[in-house]
Amino acid sequence: MNPIVTVICTCYNHELFVRESLLSVIQQTYSAIQLIVIDNASTDESRRVIQRLVDEYPEIVFIRNTHNIGLCRAFNQGLGEATGKYVIDLAADDVMPPNRIEMQVQAFENLPKEYAVVFSNAAYIDSSGVKLGYHYALRANGHAKGQVPTGDIYKEILRRYFICTPSIMMRKSVLMKLGGYDENLSYEDFDFFIRSAHDYKYHYIDEVLMYKRVLDDSLATQFYRIGNPMLRSSWEVCNKAYDLSRSQEEYDILANRIREFIKKCFVAEDPEQALAFRKLLNYIEDPGWKTDLLVFLCRLHLPVNWLYQRYAKWRNHRNLALMQQGVPFVQLER
């Protein structure tokens, strides 16, 4: 008997994309699927679009929130209803190819229990569904160019973002042991990666098993906005990583990651959070004059954000153009 896979789709104002996203679950080649949809108090027509699909497929579990409770808490709502052995967190604007779940379950079922996550390559699409490029660059045979970290990847998770989050399938027992997503955070992946990769292994499937939509209001674009809560959440996760790290090498990697977040604080004009990161860094090593200078400049409240927003817009257009020319979102070691 095939194990059940629970797909938890959280939706907020994705009326244009949510039907396509949900149909990509319904049309999987794998049949043992529980689909849970949470509308997080959308203000557009998302709820009506979802309801029409639920009328067609009454087996869908539909949770309607009367107010937006945040991404992490909404996901945990769905996790509380989940009956599957494995779980996928699906954004309401992303799309799964038909064979994704079948391939990931097959991989999971042949792995020992020390593996908590399987993940894959992904293609990026625009609002019209036009393919822009790939997370990892492809060879002519369709496989990734370079070596994708797999197995014990805690140090690599500390070092940088390299996993396309929508591509992951998680072992539910691990999610439950971790207490689900941390509801005090504004975004989920960095925290989940840190906490799970510390004790469990990850397995990479060298196939394109996700289509991630690139939109102007995605979480990645919100990171540098003034007053955004994501820097505070990142600081919380870095504190957890400090407590979890086991070697000087891991502390050194974390220190470099903290320095990157201080740079983000400068751009987001957030001196309080920059000071908090600096204090955490000081527990690991002397921050040094360059970091102290950057924190000092943060405290001057220099109006740099508007300039960076213009630069970021130009950079995003350039990156999309490069992606269409075959340059990947993540550069891998050869």
TrEMBL record:
Keyword Chaperone included in the entry's annotation: no
InterPro entries: Glyco_trans_2-like, Nucleotide-diphossugar_trans
Keywords of this entry: Transferase
Protein name: Glycosyltransferase family 2 protein
GO-annotated molecular function: hexosyltransferase activity
Pfam families: Glycos_transf_2
All copies of domain Glycosyltransferase 2-like, residue ranges: 6-175
Lineage: Bacteria, Pseudomonadati, Bacteroidota, Cytophagia, Cytophagales
